[in-house]
Amino acid sequence: MKKFKFLRELVQIISEPMFLLLISASIVYFILGEPRDGIIMLVFVIAIMFIDITQQLKTDRTLQALKSLSSPHIKVIRDNTEKNIDSSDLVPGDIMIIEEGVKIPADGKIIKYNDLCINESSLTGESEGVWKVSTEEILESEVSSYWKKDYCYAGTLVIHGSAHVLVDKIGFQTEHGKISNDVINAPDERTPLQKQTGKIVKVCALLAGILFLLVCLITYFNIPDHELKERIIESILSGITLSMAMIPEEFPVILTVFLSMGAWRLAKKQSLVRKLPSVETLGSVSVLCVDKTGTITKNQMSVFETFTLDENNLTEIMGLACEINPYDPMEKAILSYCEKMNLSKKDLFNGELIEEYSFTNDLKMMGHIWNKNNQIIVSAKGAPESILDICNISKEEKTRIENKVDEMSNKGMRVLAIGKSSLNSSNEIPENLTGCSLTFCGLVGLIDPPKESIVEDIKICNRAGVRVVMITGDNGATARSIAKQIGIKNCKNIITGEHLDEMNDNELKECIKNTNIFSRVIPEHKMRIVKAFKDIGEIVAMTGDGVNDAPALKYADIGIAMGKRGSEVSCEAADLILLDDNFSTIIDTIIDGRRIYDNIRKAIGYVLAIHIPIALASLFAPLLNVHPDNLLLLPLHVVLLELFIDPTCSIVLERQPAESNIMNRKPRSKKESILNKPTFIKSICQGMVIFIISFGIYFNVLNQNIYSTNVARTMGISVIILSNLFLVFVNSSQIDSAFYSAKKLLKDKIVCSAIVFTLVVMCLIIYTPIREFLKLAPLTISQLLSVVTASFIAVFWFEIVKFVKRRNQK
Q: What is the pLDDT of residues 229-247, one digit of tens each?
């Protein structure tokens, strides 16, 4: 894991276009003799940097806490001497000694083994253990397999037996290392939101520059009676007022605060955000690629179904056939089942273990001989075909059992047969299990079951237009069975790793349009699938917990790692880490991602709407030949209005709750702009109405009495301030009425505080001596009522539009 580097993060943050714009704006204020405004801008810069760096520091600390240092040492035979060395000191040619519970630190060839079974799910995605063999014993059909049975892989866990392994590859040369290398080489891409906001900034900067020159020229020709120096200064000040109104300094505040607060909220819901822009991208996910084992399923085998020909003690016999302290997940599942059937370990293993027949890959079965209550009992379990061969059953019974095995296997179950026998004395114990004559007890169907909440989660995804795609290293039958159980669509079509190898990229792009299950895949396949989805225009989220998921996590638009049991490599590659490994948390993050994007859009629309009256007032006053001293807005007033605008957009709008239909709509298009046509038109209309009413009141009062400039200015500015407040309620929801939104918002203490702050500051600047400094005047009760009424009309007209829209939708 890379260490957090303060200076590197600081430079990266400052190099963002938004921050450069903000810093440039503050420098302009200092140059033009407005140090107070320049300081305010710099305070914003420092505050935003603090939020971003603090979030990154917190994230990196949490990642450090997630690091697992299991099995840092390994036994080896080096120079014909057995040693215990640090696993990082391994070199090719060393002979590793591995046994139950050891996490293998390097790739190597098996040279000697004893009933070796390894859990390779972190690489392959398959939950079942792999029984290893020597090179001489490997079948011809298995020679060409990517994952070799006579080979061990770094990062996998020994769950049964022991072996001597000749170290072949270490570090980046191992399969684990190759995956890490793919992650490192994956490109970092800017999110759609980052690209869009960059364009908006450029457009605003260009408009500000053009309007600056235009206002300077108009003002210059409007005051021919002034001296040349005064004409130039007044012209520049008028132009600066308009430029300040056009500079979207709220944008970096909106983006960083909204994303940082979103990350903070997600952290409280057990989602750790590693990259802030990914918070917004979550809301646009259209394809959710999930690894079956550990993501959809529990990664924990359990007994799903049992079958017997007649009533017998199946539960006890299957328990006695297991190890007392097993590593094998299937044996753990069987003993857990026994516990549920009120047969505890203490009751089960209260006899004497006389003989043990270990599992071998040749026989594919194992057994124990117990002396319980002065009875000698043989208990055996294994592959159905192996157990049935040594059972006393009729041909008809065997056919019935085999049909049941096929039925259970087609449901995705791992099927074991259970047999028993009774011996008169220890002298009758055969040398091996094949010498026993067993009575068939029954079948046990085991499965890695889906998580409890997964069915409802998939329903929500389907309703929200988020396509769930299962990518697994497991077999197709198991994948299809699980997919049917949880409600994934298009379960009939399955693409295997072999099919993927035969397809070119164009064929794959065509096939993935109607396929939601990919089985028997390796890490490279997962990466190809994610790339293919991205190439056809989808926004892809990839979930996973194993090392084999890391490249796909990195290449996806959003990589989501399982932090509780996820590998370090997968956590490093991910944009988001689920600390509780709960699939439901992914749904919460998508909801919050959509909410955050909605709120960012609302905030940008709000900023546009509220800046229109400010900008147009600065433009129209010179056009209407208003004297520079009588302007509605001086630079000082623009800064004053920012005092109201910034808390509104950064605090109130960030806390907007999710829309009631947020998961009943399709994901937004990848090409859709944050400032889309409906939002743009709405903001323009709202801004124009506020401008017409605020500037109309100001201009009307000014024309009635030229000496009432301060009163006219106060009334115009007050309309803008109150309209700013009303916009929050009106734009809180695209569907619900402002009054319904107000009920929800007023329950939030912080929102209430922001509203009270706005009203208190407004009263202070109008009715205290501060007004003299701001060139304002106190308003009478009738004037204040006129302002409130005008502000209400300027904003709440949009409620009629929303009412008509709701009625049409019904």
A: 666 666 665 666 555 555 5
Q: What is the DSSP string of 293-344?
A: IIIIB-SS-EEEEEE-SSS--HHHHHHHTS-SS--SHHHHHHHHHHHHTT--
CATH topology (fold) of 302-447: Calcium-transporting ATPase, cytoplasmic domain N (3.40.1110)
Topology of domain 206-266+594-658+671-809 in CATH is: Calcium-transporting ATPase, transmembrane domain (1.20.1110)
Q: Do domains 282-299+451-587 and 302-447 have the same CATH topology?
A: no
Q: CATH for 74-173?
A: 2.70.150.10
Q: In this structure, are residues 71 and 102 in contact, taking their beta carbons and an 8 Å threshold?
A: yes
Cβ–Cβ under 8 Å, residues 609 and 690:
yes
> Which pLDDT value is given to residue 161?
84
How high is the pLDDT of residue 54? Answer: 63
**CB of 286 within 8 A of CB of 466?**
yes
Q: What are the pLDDT digits (tens) for 161-214?
A: 889 999 999 888 888 777 766 665 655 556 556 666 666 666 666 766 676 677
Contact 46, 67 (CB under 8 A): no
In DSSP terms, 517 is beta-bridged to: 470, 494
Domains of the chain, by residue range, sit at: 74-173, 206-266+594-658+671-809, 282-299+451-587, 302-447
Q: Cα–Cα distance between 487 and 517 in angstroms, integer?
A: 12
* pLDDT tier, 506 (very low <50, low <70, confident <90, very high otherwise): very high
Tokens of 479: 């994948």
Phi-psi category of 115—alpha, beta or left, where left has phi over 0 and alpha has psi -120 to 50?
A: left
The pairing of beta strand 558-562 with beta strand 576-578: parallel
Tell me, what DSSP letter sits at residue 136?
Answer: G
Asked whether residue 13 carries a pLDDT value surpassing 70, the answer given is: no
What is the 8-class DSSP label of residue 103?
B
What's the CATH superfamily of 282-299+451-587? HAD superfamily/HAD-like (3.40.50.1000)
pLDDT digits (tens, 9 = 90+) for 508-544: 999 999 999 998 887 778 889 999 999 998 999 998 7
Q: Report the C-alpha gap between 530 and 550 in whole angstroms.
A: 12
Q: Is the pLDDT at 2 greater than 50, yes or no?
A: no
Q: Are residues 544 and 552 in contact, defined by beta-carbon separation less than 8 angstroms?
A: yes
The average confidence (pLDDT) of the chain is: 80
The closest of 240, 375, 248 to 674, measured between CA atoms, is: 248
CB 222 within 8 A of CB 238: no
List CB contacts of 500: < 8 A, sequence separation 6 or more.
Answer: 508, 518, 521, 525, 528, 529
For CA atoms 18, 22, 28, 31, give the dihedral sign.
Answer: negative
Are 483 and 458 a contacting pair, CB within 8 Å?
no
DSSP one-letter string for 424-454: SSGGG--SSGGG--BEEEEEEEEE-PBPTTH
pLDDT of residue 410: 83
